[in-house]
Structures are given as structure tokens and as C-alpha cells.
Structures
1.
Amino acid sequence: MPPPPIDHCVLPVARLDEARRRMSALGFSVAPDAAHPFGTGNACVFFSNGTYLEPLARIDDGRAFEAAAGGNVFVGRDGAFRARYGQEGFSAIVLATDDALSDHRRFVEQGISPGAVLEFSRPFTDAGGKAAQASFRLAFAAPPGWPGSFCFTCQRLNPLPVDRSELVRHANGATAVGKILVTAADPQSAGRFFAAFAGSQSSERADGLLDVYLANGSIQIGAPETLREIYGITVEPSPGPRPVGIVLRCGDQARPRAVLEREGIPFEQTRDHICIAPAPGQGAYLLFEEQP
């Protein structure tokens, strides 16, 4: 079977309004706020290839606590991540699937399932104000014994009859999540986990990174010094795998550079990437990679 595609990246934030300001300043079009039925909410950034970023806040602590106590893995792992790393970060890598129930059975057999499948619905509103009901089924995976980041597959149970055309047009020219960067003290072990999660293969590159291949990109895993050398990002060592960066595709790096210079946002220009360090409302390194 071919590997699944990247679906989205979950970015815990302290407040959605702060995330909206930051993402807008970076040149993204941000969708209207949406609330989950279990105490969290998001303000998403969608891309034309179907991938997206999900800034996620806890908007009802009481409901979130009840959901976690009741076995909701999504809320429980979000809380564990915030307890370990604070209110801002990059907590979950999400792949698209057509059969989350089958994924869950596979994760249980592989010993990487942290809990039950989650099925839920929430309202969605497009940029023009048209509303619809979105339904999802999630199957979770996590390295055994690691309370930090986690992963899940996401199955859409009904298509959304809303127009996202305005939401996928960004002043910075971003078109897709292309690569997800992960740091780990033991990249080989982390590579085996992500390959098992994705049902894919991993391979070691000449530059020291491990690649886990996906249908529309890759997960790249490396020690902190390797990620610093290749991408110019600085991260602390992590005993377990921790997502830290997102490489976004764009047609021309002049567009994100112009936005950042206009807004006065610091960035680093390497040979191949524009790199923006995390800030409140933006829990991960964001990198722009030119791909005409």
C-alpha cells in the first residue's frame, strides 16, 4: 500500500486571538475560530493541497478536564504535552486516512496505541460565513512510555460543502506542508516508530537525517545538531521524539521575505530556506522552501 499523506500539524497555543495575530502577521489567511465539543478550539491555516496547520487552545478547561478523565486521548495528550512543555509548541503529527478503525487495530497490534478511537462532529464556517457540520474519526499512536508528543490518523466522515478558496490564498505564497522536522536523542528508534505509524519505510540520508516517506512529503528525524546544521534551527535535546519544525512549500521565497520584512519579523535566510523561530501564537519553527 502507498504511504498516507500528511493531513495537518497540531500547534498548542495559549490563546487563539494571539495565534490569529501571529499567523496573520506571517502572511497566512486564518480560518474563523472553531470549537470542539470537548473543550478545545482552533483557528486553522489551510493550504491548497489539503494540508493545514491547527493552532489549538483550551477554551473550556472544565469540559477539557472531563473529556480527558473520560478517556479522550486527544485532550488527554494535549494536556500532558502542555504540562511538559508549556502552552505553546508542536504536539501532534496527523496523517489522512480512509479507515481509522483499521489504523487503530494496527496500532494496537504494534503496541503503539495510547487509547481508544475518537469520533466527533463540530461546526465549520468558511471565509464567506457559510456553515456546515464536520465529522471526524481519529486513531492514535504514540511511542510507548513517552508522555510528550503523539500522532494520529484522521478520517473525514463527511465532505465539507464549503468554499475554502479564499482561505488557501496566502500573502506569503505558502501552498503546502511539505516536511515535518522531528528531533530525538535516538533517531533510529524514532524512525522505527514513525515508519510503523505511517505504514511506510524509513531511510538514512547522507546528511544524517532519517526520512519517513509519505504520499505528499516526509517526516525527517535527526539529532539537534543535525537539524541545526541542515535547517538552522536550535532545539533542546529530547529523550523521546519531538516535532519541532514545519517546512512549507512556496513558489517564490520573495513573497514570504517581503511579508516578514514589512512586518518587522526576524528570520534567518539559509541557502535553501527562510526560517522563522517560534513565538507566542506560533509554537514551531516555520520554514519556507521554494518549490516552483
2.
Amino acid sequence: MDDFLIYLRLGFDHITDPRGYDHILFVIALCAVYTIRQWRQVLILVTAFTIGHSITLALATLQLIHYKTALVELLIPITILITAVTNFFFQEPKSRAAFAKPANRSWRYMLALTFGLIHGMGFSNYLRSLLGREAEIIKPLLAFNIGLEIGQLVIVSLVLGLAFVVIDLVKRNRLRWTLIVSGIVAGMALSLIIDNEYLGELLK
């Protein structure tokens, strides 16, 4: 059980580590168009992302799929940028009821699932470096993934909590909140893309 808790903590620390903020940016971009009243839609969205990255995290850690690490490190900020840019086309629902849904947003679930596949490969790089030649990897894999999810839910809670303060308590415009948050995330993602060494090699 001690090893299980160790890998659970490592998974949590990995996704919440501000020094490796790319995954944090992606979760923020996913949630930027939602309010705390729409937590059900957010839960479905996060679940789609979870399914995606759980699949490739398992397959890559078990070495059932192979890929270029440098390419994945480039694709991750690209997924962040795309997600943030889609937020610029957000349309605030006319109804302010608790269960109001963002218009034409069902495609976001498939986007989260697809991009989750890419992020899972990024998670696996870190996990495999931790495992080394350890024979038993199923339990560490499970613990690490659970840790990732706990950390992910913490990030989602913070984003929705801050949105509640800004939109509901301070009474700021919801669309402006979405555009500001998404713009900051898009700018940071673009910086990561430009600074990526693999992109530089491709452009030579």
C-alpha cells in the first residue's frame, strides 16, 4: 500500500506541478467557458479527457505503442492552443437557469477525448522514467492515474471557484472572463510552441 500511495502522490504532483504547467493550461482551457452551475457538463468533459489519457497512458507505459517523445511534447501545447482558440467563439446561453448548457458545445467532449490521447503519452514519459525496470507496473500505473485525476479535479475546482467569484460575486461579464482566461492560456501555449526545439528542427 505504501508504494501505491507513493505513485498516487507522484501522479498528483505531476499534473499540479507549476513547473510543468502545460497540462494545467489544458484543463483551464477546457473549463474556461463553464460556470460552477454547469458542473455536470464539466464533469462529463473531464471524464472524456480522462478516458483519452488513461488509454494512452496505459498503452505507452506497457510499451504497447511507441512514438516520438519530441513530437508529443510539441503536440501538447498545440492541443492547448486549439482548445483556447475555440473558446473565443463561445456564445453565452440566453437562459441563466442552473442547467443551461453552452450552445453547440457537444463537440467539446470528443475534442477532450482526442486530445486526452495525446496528453496520456506525455504522462507516460514521466511514469516510465519513475518505474525504470520495475517488474510490477499495473499497480503503479493505476495509482499514478488516480493521482492525476485527483489533481485534475483540484484544478477544475479552483477554476470554477474563481469563475464563481468573478462572475457571480463581483458581477463581471461572463464572456469577458472567458476571453481573458482563454487569451492568456493561448498566449502561453503559443510561447511553448515557438520555444519547442522539435519545431525548430522541422522548420530547418
3.
Amino acid sequence: MKLSAVNQLDKEAFVALLGGVFEHSPWVAERSWASRPFASLQALHEAMCFVMRQAPATQQITLIRAHPELASRARMSPDSVQEQQGAGLDRLTPEEYERFQQLNRLYRQKFGFPFILAVKGKDKNDILRALEARLPNDRETEFEAALSQIERIAWFRLEALVEE
């Protein structure tokens, strides 16, 4: 849909279109609607990220936890399924799958939320290396990394939905 048409949507239609940009968190789109009209796709993205960043930490952690673990077989949003398939995470060998599961468990135990990475343009080896590299971080660093990665994921999803 063209950005000019997005700017004309009522709140309900806006949320219906963009509510999934932030995983299972339509509140981001709902609160961003009042910032219309958006001069560019970048401005729309910035408005949505601002809403996410201004949310209370409890709401941010709920957003982070709404994301599926990478390489899991858990129920995922259609966007997450497509993103993980694009990175080859649906075609892991049993050994690779077990390694991802082991690292995901360690990560979740340490930080209390899933490892989040914008996987577009990455393959399973890139993702595994990133997971291993970030595991030694402290919780504050990883909380910020998760929000930053969610912003990247949101950008890719907006690009797929909205034309300038």
C-alpha cells in the first residue's frame, strides 16, 4: 500500500495493516496512528520506534518475549515464519537444531527473554555466531540489543507493506 493511502487510514484500518509490524504488539501501531501524516517510510518507522521506546519497561519486555526463539518449532506469526525460512532455520540438521536449542535455553535462562536478531540477509551460521557472541553480555546490554533488533525487524516488515 502506498504511504499516502496509509496516511488516510482510520485508526482501525491502520492498526489492521501495521499491527503485526511489532510482533504480537498492535499497541505500537495504535499509538503511532496519531502521528500521521508521515512524510516518509522512515518517518513512520521512527514514530513507531519512538512509541516502543517510550513504553514502560514492563511493556517492552512483553514485546521482546512475544518474539519466538530462532530455530524453534513454536507457533510463530506468519512474518516470523517467513523470516526464519529465509535464513534457512527451517532446514537445520538434527545437530544444528540441537545446538540452537541448547544456546536458546542458555540465553533465555540468563536473560529471561528470547534471543532476537533481524535475520533478513543472514544465514544459519551468521545467526549461530551472533547468538554465541551475545551470550556473554549482561542483561542491560541484551535488553537494548533486543529493542534495536526489533527496530530492524520492524523496518524490514514496513518495507514489505508500505511503498513511499
